[in-house]
Write a structure and sequence with these properties.
Radius of gyration: 37 Å
Largest sheet: 6 strands, antiparallel
Number of helices: 15
Distance between the termini: 61 Å
Number of strands: 22
Helix content: 40-55%
Shape: elongated
Strand order of the largest sheet: 8-7-6-11-10-9
Structural class: alpha+beta
Length: 576
């Protein structure tokens, strides 16, 4: 379009007439800023530099970017080129302005920026989580990073409890104390109902408008408004959920923000799984250590009572109970007698039970372990033990040659412990050691065999821990390399980064990073590492079996395998 010095339109083409001028309105009665910006004054400021004013100052063509508003109200990004329009006497009488729609380019740029920011946030979180193996540290890190990346006031992480079939609050950031005190665990069935309707991301735009939500009274009291819940899944199994909250006002999250939250949830599921595996390996190591120490005591001592006291103490500590007892079978009296009572509020020494009476009597009768996590309401309590303060009790039979010769019990009087199958397995191991102590005549042979088995278990455990540490080291190096590669501006910089980290990732191997030349007829090694790098620095693509076949070419034995011509025999075992 052609614009005069008074900003009035002198001439417009059909595109401008169709998109920016209302039907029936003469364009020469309008000013440029009226049709393109729907305003009453000329453009000003850095956001919308006036091309006419710029041309008047310089008498030279100028290029600027504007956001124009069409007659329909639609906003479009445009690249404007304005050239001076001189009269016959050489004086400036206006400008000739052309505008190119760059909306799609600008949207693509914005999309790239958003995706880059999301990738950067995910990489930062991955690096932080990969450096953590403690479960509590992982949970807190996830909540902190979620609050930071999504700029929300609070986040929480719920874990799924398979035994209780519910999701419970495990960590939070920005949540008031009242939330932690009053929050109730969500049943799995309720969570599944929401997930089936909404998918892996559950969005509640305004919790105040959904009165039938679980914890609705708590949400109302704390003025919690928007809630978004992202499922944490690992190999199709529910690990928990990552949740964000707003207080006092509703917030609409974009698709990019929801995708970022889901990415955090996926990373959290993997990190939690890794932390649990590490904790399990640590727990297993503690178990093996306690069992091995007990076995060593069995070898070095012949007195039964001190050994049984040691066994019940270690079993109680390892299972997280508050105390425990050991009953032994008295054949002449046909009864069980408590011979060891450890760290309980009441001394049960010499208490007797008949077969089938109480937990110990029932375990003696069935020969099977028994767990009661609500002892006060268990109908099988012995009449003279109904007032014991224990909340949860686990009992395992002490077996010798298929015969029950006693029982070992671990009690929890605090109400903070619930026993499970893992505890049954562990307590059964201690029961086996108690049987060995009671049957002292066969002590030596039994302990020697058990020591050998435990040493083998410790070796396997050590290998597992070493492998996990190596895996975490490799992940950390790969994350560091990825961060550096993203900032490289030249091939030389990138090749130097690859060479540096390849040496760390493959410390006992040699290799090279080769790049095909632009001519496609030569391949050059631009980076090498190791003590014996390839001798051929430049070769043709035909010299490389991997390039010719379009897939990895591996040679495990250079004397019998098919070596590439660019790899010499002295290079040893090679892989392209």
């Amino acid at each position: 379009m052609v614009i005069g010095l008074d900003y009035h339109l002198k001439l417009v083409n059909q595109a401008v007439q169709a998109d920016y001028v209302a039907n029936g309105v003469a364009s020469d009665l309008l000013c440029c800023y009226q049709i393109s910006h729907h305003r009453d004054t000329p453009c000003e400021g850095d956001a919308h530099v006036c091309p006419l004013r710029k041309v008047r100052e310089t008498l030279l063509p100028v290029s600027v970017e504007h956001v124009h508003i069409r007659e329909s109200g639609e906003q479009r990004f445009v690249d404007i080129t304005a050239s001076p329009w001189f009269g016959e006497d050489g004086t400036l009488i206006g400008i000739i302005e052309s505008a190119h729609d760059i909306t799609e380019r600008k949207q693509a740029e914005e999309r790239i920026c958003r995706e880059s920011a999301r990738a950067e946030a995910l990489a930062r979180v991955a690096a932080r989580l990969n450096a953590q193996l403690d479960l509590d540290a992982v949970l807190n890190a996830v909540c902190e990073e979620t609050v930071r990346a999504l700029n929300v006031p609070a986040a929480s992480l719920n874990l799924y409890d398979e035994r209780r079939k519910c999701l419970y609050l495990a960590a939070g950031n920005g949540l008031p104390p009242a939330y932690r005190e009053r929050h109730r665990s969500a049943p799995r069935a309720l969570y599944d109902a929401y997930a089936q309707r909404s998918g892996p991301i559950i969005v509640i735009p305004d919790a105040q408008r959904v009165p039938d939500l679980p914890d609705a009274e708590l949400y109302a009291a704390l003025d919690i408004r928007t809630i978004v819940v992202a499922s944490m899944l690992r190999e199709g199994q529910l690990v928990g959920s990552l949740n964000i909250f707003t207080f006092g006002k509703v917030r609409h999250l974009t698709d990019d923000e929801l995708a970022l939250l889901k990415g955090f949830a996926d990373q959290a599921a993997q990190a939690i799984t890794n932390a649990r595996l590490f904790a399990a390996s640590q727990q297993r190591a503690a178990e093996m250590t306690a069992l091995r120490e007990t076995a060593l005591d069995l070898v070095s001592h012949l007195e039964t009572k001190p050994l049984l006291e040691t066994i019940i103490r270690r079993a109680t500590d390892l299972l997280g109970g508050t105390g425990g007892v050991i009953y032994q079978w008295e054949e002449p009296a046909q009864q069980l007698r408590c011979t060891i009572s450890h760290a309980l509020s009441r001394d049960y020494t010499n208490v007797t039970l008949k077969p089938g009476e109480g937990m110990a009597g029932r375990v003696y009768q069935t020969g099977q372990p028994l767990v009661v996590n609500d002892y006060a309401h268990w109908e099988g309590r012995a009449a003279h033990l109904r007032d014991i303060p224990s909340r949860a009790v686990i009992c395992a039979p002490i077996l010798w040659q298929g015969q029950v010769i006693g029982t070992i019990n671990v009690n929890d009087e605090s109400g903070a412990r619930a026993f499970d199958d893992r505890d049954v397995r562990l307590l059964s191991l201690f029961a086996n050691q108690a049987a060995t102590a009671i049957e002292n005549a066969r002590l030596y042979a039994a302990v020697q065999q058990e020591l050998a088995e435990r040493e083998q278990a410790e070796e396997k455990l050590g290998a597992t821990v070493t492998e996990l540490e190596q895996h975490n080291r490799e992940i950390t190096l790969l994350n560091e390399m990825g961060d550096l590669l993203q900032t490289c501006r030249t091939v030389e910089e990138a090749s130097a980064v690859v060479a540096q980290f390849a040496q760390k990732l493959f410390p006992k191997q040699s290799g090279a990073l080769c790049l095909i030349a632009a001519s496609r007829n030569l391949v050059e090694a631009i980076a090498t590492w190791g003590a014996a790098p390839p001798q051929e620095r430049v070769f043709t693509p035909d010299d490389c079996w991997a390039l010719r076949r379009g897939q990895t070419h591996r040679v495990t034995d250079p004397h019998s395998g098919l070596l590439c011509r660019h790899v010499s025999q002295s290079f040893g075992s090679a892989q392209d």
